[in-house]
Design goal:
Helices cover about 60% and strands about 10% of the residues. The protein has helices at about 10-15, 25-50, 55-65, 75-80, 85-95, 120-140, 145-165, and strands at about 70-75, 100-105, 110-115. Strands 1-3-2 form a three-stranded antiparallel β-sheet.
């Protein structure tokens, strides 16, 4: 435990009153949380029902399907999926057990591995994608006007860019 006294700016920041959300900001924030929680649950239930997999696994399969030769380095897949390496390793182990993904050693880096989408995994993805895109379309796009869709895209891009720091020491999931 660090017992050194805090610097003057740190002491001031600690005693400063937080800038609380306004009533409108609180309403917007809670609406966002409510909607994203319900949306993730909706998509998870659809994918569990149709393919016996959670939404995160579907995203991993899509990431591999879109990659050259249906393969990505594990670290690249973790970065693309915005998840920790340990969570990715667990998910890939489950996908391997299903026969949907296999791991391959990286010839240029003895510690590195590739995740590769198998033919069986591609078939499962092909069967599952139509139901998933229907669920996404019904849950989001059919509820919004084209203008609202454009605005939502712009807003989410701004939020994502603000949360993904570019400095080398950033605390990002795929670096943990």
């Amino acid at each position: 435990m660090n017992t050194a006294p805090a610097s003057a700016p740190a002491q001031e920041a600690a005693t400063e009153e937080p800038r609380w959300l306004t009533d409108d900001e609180q309403r917007i924030w809670r609406s966002y949380l409510h909607a994203t929680t319900l949306l993730e649950d909706h998509l998870d239930r659809q994918l569990q029902r149709d393919a016996g997999m959670p939404h995160i696994y579907y995203g991993l399969l899509v990431g591999l399907a879109e990659a050259p030769r249906r393969r990505l380095r594990m670290t690249e897949l973790a970065m693309k999926s915005k998840i920790t390496r340990s969570r990715l390793s667990h998910a890939i182990a489950r996908l391997e057990k299903n026969g949907w993904v296999r791991r391959e050693d990286c010839p240029s880096d003895k510690r590195g591995q590739f995740a590769v989408l198998t033919d069986q995994g591609a078939e499962v993805l092909g069967r599952t994608a139509p139901g998933h895109v229907t669920a996404v379309r019904q849950a989001v796009f059919e509820r919004l006007t084209p203008e609202q869709q454009e605005t939502l895209g712009e807003i989410m891009q701004i939020v994502a860019e603000g949360l993904q720091p570019s400095d080398a020491g950033a605390d990002l999931p795929w670096l943990r």
